[in-house]
Amino acid sequence: MRPEHSSMGFPKPGKALLGMMIAIGCIWVMFTLGLNWGGAGEGVLEPFLGISEKVLHGQVWRLLTAPLVHNPSDPWHFVTTLLGLYFLGASLEERWGARRTLAFLFGSAAFAFALQVAVGALLPKMARPVFYGGLGMIEAVAVAWALAHRHATVRLFFVLPVTGTMLLVFIFGISVLNVIAMRAPPEGLITPFGGMLAGYLFGDFSPLRRFYLRIRFRQLQAQSAALRRVPAARGRSGGVPLRVIPGGQKDPPKDKRYLN
Q1: CATH number of 11-210
Q2: In 46-67, which positions are buried (b, 16+ CB within 10 angstroms) versus exposed (e)?
Q3: I need a labelling partner for 186 at 20 to 30 A (CA). Which of 120, 167, 175, 230 fits?
Q4: What's the pLDDT tens digit per position in 130-160?
Q5: Are the CB atoms for 181 and 34 separated by under 8 Å?
Q6: Does the pTM exceed 0.70?
Q7: Distance between CA atoms of residues 65 and 102, nearest Å
């Protein structure tokens, strides 16, 4: 098969990606100005951060707010999230639409952080008491894009030519190296793997999606068969009984059923 090549032009994100990128950028600017210039305390971030202990005690909404928060002292942390959404997410939104794209972004980020909390509870060395950032979301986007464009080539950051397969190998290798070196990003050591798994499970080539489509197809087949049986049953039992009227009668029968 001949490899596909993506356009060198700027991607055109849809409403979902554009809204997500604006939200992440505005949240970072707001908290950064408040902390560094407005005299706000670090406690202002606490309600939005992922805190493993509080998530385990029922505050699961933190899994949805933590992906929107990025390190106020590190601009590159939120910029990499924006770049990942911009370069890899546009083609996904074009195929999926805004609603599914938003569900995928928030769902994959929450799934990745939930896996971080669960593994951290079982293996304390992998635990991350406080976590935040969009790495899990970006890993999911990267995997979903790579699986859908195995033979395509994209100029990442307009410089690095990578195929879908190369991108998969790169992000997985970096995550493994971080575990070996015990160099945890703000999202945690397990979150990137959770994001990759979410990208596989919730993307176009998901086994869960294939299972759902198979079940849905069988339901439609059953409904179609039932609809085909209904007219046949009505023809056998629901019709008006017919009688043969002897010919030659001068007066029409009084029973109106025989007029036609």
Answers
A1: 1.20.1540.10
A2: eebbbbbebbeeeeeebbebbb
A3: 167
A4: 999 999 999 999 999 999 887 777 766 666 7
A5: no
A6: yes
A7: 14
